[in-house]
Amino acid sequence: MFIDTDIFARIVAGEIPCDKVFETARILAFRDIAPKAKTHIIIIPKENLVTAKEVTANNLELFGELFLVAKEIAEKENLKGYKLHMNVDEEGGQVVPHVHLHLLSRDFKSPL
Ligand code: AMP
Fold it and tell me: Ligand 1 pocket by C-beta < 6 Å: which residues?
């Protein structure tokens, strides 16, 4: 079930702290508060998009940048291999109503 506030928008606004690992003009990445792997990083667009269902021909570049940032973080953190995971909508297991890509590597604990 979606939580009722977009906590990731509040992180972007600086109202909630985060353990930031990477930032561009349009993207923010921070460590997951309840990691499901040794490395578990959340990568988000700063724009308030709720789910990946909002991808269109007009914002393809923004969605693509999530993957570019994931690659750059993986290089920075010396990750040899990793999982990229995105829950889409409540029925897809998404809890936070803000588009986010999970980057996970090593010692995976449980499915997301
Ligand atoms: P999802 O189920 O795909 O919506 O994933 C939401 C993720 O956000 C979960 O892995 C949570 O542990 C993580 N999360 C929730 N609140 C915070 C927070 N304040 N800072 C960092 N990660 C968070």
Answer: 7, 16, 18, 30, 32-34, 42, 87, 93-96, 112
